Amino acid sequence: MSSIALDTMSNNPYNLPTMVSSRLLDDGLEPPGALATLRRAASTLAVAARQTVPLLSAGRGDEGWSQRGARQLRQAFERLGPTYVKLAQLVASSPGLFPEVLVSEFRACLDQVPPEPAEVVRRLIAAELGGSVSDLFADFDDRPLAAASIAQVHRAALRDGTEVVVKVQRPGLADRLAADVAILHRLAGLVERFSTAGRMANPVAVVEDLAVTLGQELNFVIEARSMERFAANLGGHDRNGGVRVPHVHWPYTTARVLTMEYIDGHKIDDLASLGTAGWDLGRALKAGVRAWMEAALIHGFFHGDVHAGNLMIDRDGRVVFLDFGICGQLDDAARQVISEGLPALMVERDFARVASAIYQLGAILNPADLDRAAQDIAELVTPILDQPLSQISYGQILIDIIRVGTRYDVRLPRELVLVAKQLLYFERYAKLLAPDWTVLDDPELIGFLFDSAATMPVDRAG
């Protein structure tokens, strides 16, 4: 069905933009019905009122008003459920694009909720896979290993004894999420229209990005293909032998059920367990970082959320990438700019070239502002670059450069924010597992970064 037809149909009562409507359909999130949207709007307003009345009564001039406002907003998002939790996580993962008080507060927005009852999970699996759980699996643990707002995961065994993990989507999510997206898009449009400060954060684009993210997370086939694409890209180089991705079991996978290989290991920040395993943790981490940089800068398709719950070290000492619900893509032009801009920043301190790179990526900055932007970048990052190498956070430097871009109304690709976020994660893991190692001071990684622009092989599964 065409997006033009969608805009004229009754199932798009809030006139969702063509881009959002088509993406919702393409990624599995149907535009909502009018009644569902109105009901959801009413409940959203009720929650918002409960959370904001105490804040308004406190008075704007009170000390800490902005912190209390951020806290009230986080609590409202948690009450409103999966869509708003995901939006909070999007804000928290995009420092430099939103006020720091919100970014900091939303980091505490936990995506852990009570699990669905076992009978609900079993009914959904049966409906998706065409057979009862007892017929499909030799063993199935009704107690989930983890439960989040979108899905929960269970340990199981196939009939041939193969140990697997089954990721099961919560029932009834699509209608609720679609109604939320419709409401958020309307609100974002109002913010862009009436708030200059709000326009800088490009709220409509944020909501469109959220719609795509939610649509992809609701379709586990997309996640399974992302797993295989990432693994295929890295499988082309023998230096990636220390990195792996779980195998997908396609006969037991649908849009709402994902069955994959069970990995026995420990989270990458579980020092108590890792310390007794006898592995070379520094070497394992370096292998993981190198593989991720190859994925981003060479193949242009990378894991976009390497928090500790999504990185493991298995029993063989290999780094395992898990949960591909969030992935980033960098086109050739973006990779070229990053490959040229980072060396210009790190080695040459050519801030004019860095500002030019921002212009190329954002394509909005007035060229007359390049000199001022270069000066702003120099003033912001020079004190950081003057520190000892072991204390420099290149992820934070990228975040600071993104902040400079927002001053000049440059709307940078969110993939750049994802890159910065992953660097921050890897720098944190380096302090835990290899405190004498600096991520972007490693000769191999530096050479890899400098060479990447000239060695861009074809994405094997793109």
What does this structure look like?
- The protein has helices at 3-7, 18-26, 34-58, 65-80, 82-92, 100-106, 118-129, 133-136, 173-194, 196-200, 203-217, 220-234, 271-274, 281-299, 332-348, 351-362, 370-385, 394-407, 414-433, 443-452; strands at 137-140, 146-147, 151-158, 163-169, 243-244, 257-261, 265-267, 301-303, 311-314, 319-321, 327-329.
- The chain is an alpha+beta fold.
- Strands 1, 2, 3, 4 and 6 form a five-stranded antiparallel beta sheet that branches. Strands 5-10-9-7 form a four-stranded mixed beta sheet, with helices on one face.
- β3 (151-158) and β4 form a beta hairpin.
- α3 packs across α9 (173-194).
- The longest helix has 25 residues, at 34-58.
- The protein is globular, with a radius of gyration of 23 Å.
- The two termini are 25 Å apart.
- Mean pLDDT is 79; it is low at 1-28, 59-63 and 453-458.
Low-confidence stretches: 1-28, 59-63, 453-458
How would you classify the helix and strand content by structural class?
alpha+beta
Residue share in helix: 55-70%
First-to-last CA distance = 25 Å
What gyration radius follows from the Cα positions, in whole Å? 23 Å
Q: Which geometry do the CA atoms define?
A: globular
Average of per-residue pLDDT values = 79
The helix count comes to 20
Beta-strand share of residues: 5-15%
Main β sheet profile: 5 strands, antiparallel
What's the total number of strands?
Answer: 11
Key words describing this protein structure:
single chain, 462 residues, four-stranded mixed beta sheet, 20 helices, globular
